[in-house]
Amino acid sequence: MRLPIIDRDPARLAARHEAAVLWASRPALFALLRAAPLAGPVRRVPRLGWVVTDPVLARAVLNDPGHFTLLGEGGVGHLWAQVLGDYVHRIFDGPGHADLRRRARDLFTDATARPLVARVFAPALEPAVDRLRAGGEVDVADLSRLLVGRMTAELLGLDPPDGGDRAFRELFATGERLARLALGSAASTALPPDVVAEAKAIIGELTRNVPRAFAQAPAGTLLGRCRELGLSEQEASGLSALLLVAGTETAATAMTRTLALLHDTGQQHRLVADPELLPAAVREGLRVTTPAPVIGRGVSRDVAVGPARMRAGERVLVLTYAANNRAGGFDLDRPYAPESRQLWFGAGRHLCLGAALARAELAHLVTGLLAAGPVRIVGRSAARGVLIPSYASLRVVTSSPRPRSSSASAGSPAPCGPR
Ligand code: HEM
Question: Is 158's C-beta closer than 6 angstroms to any atom of ligand 1?
Answer without folding.
Answer: no
